[in-house]
Structures are given as structure tokens and as C-alpha cells.
């Protein structure tokens, strides 16, 4: 099993004129450390207008800085939003190829649609039409990585023969992924031959079911959107903090509940609409909620990969048995301190990661047999596992 990191660049209030600067600089230092410690990939989201929750609106710029400050860790666009007018496919292809050259072929290329009307509306995209635009964008974008020119005439993009430059270091292109903010999209990613970035918090049982759904779609129902190299991989996100004891880890991981609180606070609103700027102070709302719901907050910290090395190893063994390829660790959340994040990464890398990195060849062999149909996976009913949050997750009323 591989271990990645996820960055939203959360910046809770109150803000001062150095809040974002500190967040960005500390993230750079954390990822430099993760690179030296042997973590596999770092993923940066693309979000817009989500004050406090995500200040990562220009991931390619941040990843560009990391190309010069890291040597081995892979650099993930997690994800580039493809519905135009977020990003035109030509500009995305150019930026991804440039990143791949600067990083000596370390880019992982994830794409997505966005999942809230707050982000879609200013760019002129509707909730109903975004999947169709994303599919058309994939069809026209991937051929741009090949040598020579490309012309495209589709329902949403139309342009004459042009040679899009530069070309990526990895051939035929960097590994392709798609965002799966809804669990059902994991099966869809398998059908499209794309790696699945599962941005939700699930149990080991749910992971087992969705791994089966993903690989069964990959092997039995493949329908690629274009002539691209497939990427059979499934990654799931987990809240994360590693410390000497479970109690210490939970005390340091308060940001995990803030992250979940933000997701749940707006998750049931119409089209996940966020309030207008200045209407809500999310950190204050979180503190009020936590004071009123101490038992729920404590239960939430008992989930995820939060605990001592032994506790985390025990939890990971359950996920490893489900054949998850990669676990994406979310450590930079809420007001988790820079010092605690760094010490957590160091302890995990020394006391947890080696056991599971050693088993990567066995996972690769299992996957080879699945893809060759030497192993037939059971068709598991995924209906009981469609909840985005596990039983221990934060529970919050819908935003007004």
C-alpha cells in the first residue's frame, strides 16, 4: 500500500495579513519533509471561493514550486477542474506537460467537475451539465499530449489543427485519475479506465465493496473516453494524525473534526451552496458546535487514521486486506499545528509505513491477476456502502 498526502490549504479564521502566507510556507516545508521521508504522492485540490475550507485555487502554481524543492515524491493534480470556463483543455494540457518536464516525470494528472454551485456558477457551469462537459474535455485533451497536432470538433469544444506544446516527460502521458466525491463515481472511474481518487471517509468494509466494484467495472465494462493509457488504481482519503498515544493523537487532530464539520455544514444545502462572503465564520460555528456536541466530536476523532503507531497499523491492516492501492492522508486541516503535522509525518514514516510499503509487490501481483482475469472478484452489492461518511463521522445540521 502506498501513502499520499492531500492539501486543501485550510486557513480558518481569524485571519491576519500573514495567514495565507504562513499556510503556504508551512505546506512547502511539510512536503519537503514528506519527500525526504519517502511518502509517495502529494495531491493538491483546485477549489474556488471556499473561505477557510480551501485556499488552494492555483494548484499548478504550488506544484510548480514543489518541482524545485522535492526530488522523489510524485506531484498530483487532485484535481484540475475541466468544465469550461474553469480551465480550457488546451491550457490544462500545457500546464500539466510543463509540470511534468520540470519535475522529471513525477506528475499524476487528476481531473474533475466541481461539486458545488458556489464554485460552478461564477464560471457559467451548471450542476446538470458538468459531467457532459468533463467527458468532452477528456476526449479532446488527452490527444494533445501526443506528438504532432490535434484538431477537435465536439459538442463543447471545437478548434482547428494545432500542436499543443510542450509535451510531457512521461509517455504517452502522466497517469490519469478522476475525482470521486460520490462513492458511485468510483465504479464509473473503473469503467473509464481511470484511477479513482475517493474523496470520502469510509470503513474497511465499504472499501472492500468499492474496490470490487471498481475492478469489476475496469475488467468487464471498460469504455474509455479516448485513446489513453489506463490507470488501474484506487485511492481513498483518511483523516490522519500519528503520535505516541491515541489520546495525544486525538488532542493534536482537532482539525480533522473541523474539516468534516465544514463538509457536513453545507453538504445538505441546495447544490451544496455556500453562504455569501462574510456571512459565516466557519471556525466560530465549529467551536459552537463542538461545545454543544462534545460526545459527537470525540467519536469523530476515534475514526480515521488517528492514533498511536500500533493503532494506525491495526486499522491499516484492515484496509490493506481490501486491496486499496493508496491511502491519502489528510493532516493539514483546521488549526493542526505545523510542528504536530511534521512530527506526525516523521513518526508514521519510521514506525508504520515500512510494513505496508514492503507489501506493495504482493498488491501488484494481486492486481496483475485481477486484470488478467486469473482472479474473479465477487460482485458485491454497494448499496449499503453509499454513505459518504462513516458511522463515527461528524454529524451537523444543514446550513440555513
Give the strand content: 5-15%
Taking all Cα atoms into account, the compactness measure Rg is: 20 Å
CATH superfamily: Luciferase-like domain
Biggest sheet layout: 8 strands, parallel, barrel
- Structural class, from secondary structure content? alpha/beta
Q: Any idea of the CATH topology?
A: TIM Barrel
Task: Give the CATH level 1 class.
Answer: Alpha Beta
Number of helices: 15
Mean pLDDT: 92
Series of H and E elements: EHEHEHEHHEEEHEHEHHHHEHEHHH
Strands of the widest sheet, in order across it, are: 1-2-3-4-7-8-9-11
Give the overall silhouette. globular
Annotated CATH architecture: Alpha-Beta Barrel
Share of residues in helices: 40-55%
Distance between the termini: 41 Å
What's the β-strand tally?
11
The total tally of domains equals 1
Low-confidence stretches: none
Question: Which tags fit this structure?
Answer:
two-stranded antiparallel ribbon; 11 strands; 400 residues; eight-stranded parallel barrel; TIM Barrel; 15% strand; alpha/beta
Give a written overview of the molecule.
The chain is an alpha/beta fold and 400 residues long. It has helices at 19-37, 59-67, 89-102, 117-120, 130-141, 184-192, 204-220, 246-252, 254-267, 282-292, 294-301, 309-321, 338-351, 353-357, 360-371, and strands spanning 2-7, 41-44, 74-81, 107-112, 150-153, 158-162, 176-180, 195-198, 234-242, 305-307, 326-330. β2 (41-44), α2 (59-67) and β3 form a beta-alpha-beta unit. α1 (19-37) packs parallel to α13 (338-351), α3 crosses α5 and α6 packs parallel to α7 (204-220). The protein is globular. It starts with a strand and ends in a 29-residue tail after the last helix.
Amino acid at each position: 500500500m502506498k501513502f499520499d498526502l492531500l492539501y486543501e490549504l485550510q486557513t480558518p479564521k481569524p485571519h491576519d495579513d500573514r495567514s495565507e502566507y504562513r499556510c503556504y510556507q508551512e505546506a512547502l516545508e511539510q512536503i519537503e519533509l514528506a519527500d525526504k521521508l519517502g511518502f509517495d504522492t502529494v495531491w493538491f485540490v483546485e477549489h474556488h471561493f471556499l473561505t477557510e475550507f480551501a485556499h488552494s485555487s492555483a494548484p499548478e502554481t504550488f506544484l510548480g514550486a514543489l518541482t524545485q524543492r522535492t526530488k522523489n515524491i510524485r506531484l498530483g493534480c487532485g484535481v484540475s477542474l475541466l468544465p469550461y470556463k474553469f480551465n480550457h483543455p488546451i491550457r490544462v494540457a500545457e500546464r500539466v506537460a510543463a509540470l511534468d518536464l520540470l519535475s522529471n516525470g513525477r506528475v499524476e494528472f487528476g481531473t474533475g467537475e466541481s461539486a458545488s454551485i458556489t464554485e460552478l456558477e461564477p464560471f457559467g457551469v451548471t450542476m446538470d451539465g458538468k459531467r457532459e462537459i468533463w467527458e468532452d474535455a477528456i476526449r479532446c485533451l488527452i490527444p494533445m499530449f501526443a506528438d504532432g497536432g490535434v484538431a477537435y470538433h465536439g459538442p463543447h469544444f471545437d478548434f482547428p489543427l494545432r500542436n499543443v506544446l510542450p509535451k510531457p516527460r512521461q509517455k504517452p502521458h502522466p497517469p490519469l485519475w478522476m475525482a470521486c466525491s460520490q462513492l458511485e463515481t468510483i465504479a464509473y472511474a473503473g469503467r473509464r479506465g481511470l484511477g479513482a481518487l475517493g474523496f470520502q471517509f469510509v470503513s474497511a468494509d465499504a472499501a472492500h465493496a468499492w474496490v470490487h466494484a471498481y475492478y469489476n467495472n475496469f475488467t468487464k465494462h471498460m469504455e474509455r473516453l479516448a485513446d489513453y493509457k489506463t490507470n488501474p488504481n484506487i485511492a481513498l482519503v483518511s483523516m490522519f494524525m500519528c503520535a505516541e498515544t491515541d489520546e495525544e493523537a486525538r488532542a493534536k487532530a482537532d482539525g480533522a473534526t473541523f474539516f468534516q464539520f465544514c463538509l457536513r455544514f453545507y453538504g445538505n444545502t441546495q447544490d451544496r451552496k455556500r453562504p455569501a462572503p462574510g456571512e459565516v465564520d466557519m471556525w466560530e460555528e465549529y467551536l459552537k458546535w463542538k461545545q454543544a456536541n462534545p460526545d459527537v466530536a470525540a467519536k469523530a476523532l476515534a475514526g480515521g487514521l488517528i492514533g498511536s503507531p500500533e493503532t494506525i497499523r491495526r486499522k491499516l491492516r484492515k484496509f490493506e486486506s481490501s486491496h486499496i492501492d493508496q491511502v491519502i492522508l489528510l493532516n493539514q486541516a483546521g488549526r493542526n499545528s505545523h510542528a504536530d503535522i511534521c512530527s506526525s509525518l516523521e513518526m508514521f514514516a519510521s514506525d508504520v509505513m515500512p510494513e505496508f510499503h514492503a507489501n506493495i509487490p504482493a498488491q501488484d501481483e494481486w492486481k496483475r491477476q485481477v486484470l488478467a482475469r486469473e482472479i474473479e472478484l465477487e460482485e458485491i452489492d454497494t448499496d449499503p456502502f453509499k454513505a459518504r461518511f462513516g458511522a463515527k463521522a461528524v454529524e451537523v445540521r444543514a446550513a440555513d
